[in-house]
Amino acid sequence: MTEKERKMRLQLGAATLLVVAGCALLAAGFLAPPTGEIHSSVLVAFGEVITFAGALYGIDYHYRFRDK
Fold first, then answer.
1. How many Cα atoms sit within 13 Å of 14 on the Cβ side?
2. How much is the pTM?
3. Would you say the C-alpha torsion 37, 28, 48, 51 has a positive or negative sign?
4. DSSP letter for each residue of 41-56
């Protein structure tokens, strides 16, 4: 595997992980009872930020390597 292929796989893996983690936090924010430790609005906001970051990684990956 070349360095470029390894970099592509790492970026795609990071994008996938960020989107999955963001979606899990969004679901947890809606489903978790208020325990007083972490407010659900914090989980939702963090989930949205992570999902957006993962989407940007994925879009960058798609347009950078679509001709390869």
1. 12
2. 0.61
3. positive
4. HHHHHHHHHHHHHHHH
Q: Which residues of 9-43 are buried (b: 16+ CB within 10 A; e: fewer)?
A: eebeeebeebbebbeebbeebeeeeeeeeeeeeeb
CB atoms within 10 A of CB 65: 14
Could you report the per-residue pLDDT of 37-61, keeping only the tens digit for each?
A: 667 777 788 888 888 888 888 888 7
Separation between Cα atoms, residue 51 and residue 21, nearest integer Å: 8
Identity at 5, one-letter amino acid code:
E
Structure token pair of residue 60: 């960058």
